[in-house]
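Input sequence (437 aa), recorded before submission:
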Amino acid sequence: MIIGGLWCGRTAAETTQIAANLLAQATPSVSVTAQAGTERIARYTLTPEREAKARAIAKVRLRMIFVGMVYGLAVLLVVLRWKLAAKYRDAAEKVSAKRFVQVLVFAPLIALTIDVLSLPTGIYENWINRRYGLSVQGWGSWFWDWTKGELLSVIATIIIVGILYWAIRKSPARWWFYFWLATLPLILALIFIQPLVIDPMFHKFESLQAKDPGLTAELEKMVQHAGETIPPERMFWMGAEEKTTELNAYVTGFGASKRIVVWDTTIAKMNTPQIVFVAGHEMGHYVLNHVAKGLAFAAVVLFVMFYLGYRAIGWVLGRWGAAWGIRALGDLASYPALLLVISILAAFAGPIGSTFSRHIEHQADQYGLEVTHGLTPDSGQVAAQSFNILGDVDLADPEPRPWEVALFYDHPAIPARIAFCLGYDPWEKGGTGEFVK
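Predicted structure, token format:
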């Protein structure tokens, strides 16, 4: 539940991104401070230099989305046309006649092949982030993170391929449904272990109370003001400044792993009232059960996608399967063909997911305003300032086109968020907030 502004096609499973050019105006400097973000604002405001950079990188980000989608599909088509999946299947069958062993051979090979072919897009994207001053991560550190990500990718692919082809063999007509059922506990397990196991592989986490007791005390006041209980043990500081200049805070996990995380860059570039609003936004995700609602929404979308994928894959294999060296749907070599179909469906489902995400992010913005009202003087202005700092540091587009927001933004645009913060005042006429009474 990040508080950023533009979706650039980056998820744990998506490695197909590519950037465009427009780098003439890019420089590797960011100089926003908490003190510089305390002036009163009436709208999203950038210096002329940073506005030019924000507009330039907005064009790059948009091209990254389209080119990344096309490149990702091209990678899968190359794997199929070169019959790499069929060759890996043959190699796996030579190793053992046991299906489980075959999966252990095939899955790492296909995962690494797809990811290595997709690596140039990731390199190019990081290069752009470095040129625009959004990344300060060295290339050695970046490649080490990529290597760790590959380890996770291989493990995930082994699990997914094993379950998928077990379901196909057991029920050729209903495999999509049984595979969908199996993905639900897998998603739950991933969300639970991510903050405990995966995130610490890439960043350093410490107790926010131990790292910044003064800020923690202010956050506790906000939590108490809301009548909620979020213990300090669930609040974490994350070291991001070694890799990025961008700002972020988020809520993640569930049950015993549920927590609010604030990046050190956010703490460095916002003052305490502004961070309290950011934390209030994140607490809104916590209190409004957005993790559970997001899971339910994802389950519905996956159900539809898997069913449509089931309906389409037979035609795809009937038309091109023989040319790709695929014997039947139950053949391991059909895996990249299934990925190709699901990737196309996911591209069409993307705007639906973005719309849902913008809705819950807007709710969290509203909750943040309500929970800080009466606690922070001029809380709407403080919230607007926090978004202005966020947009300045992250180079958010000052004038995104409506169709870009509708298709690709998983958060409301920064200008719209600032306008909402400055205009939302149900208390002016004696009313109350919707979520915090």
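Checked by second reader. The beta strands are 204-207, 235-239, 249-252, 259-263.
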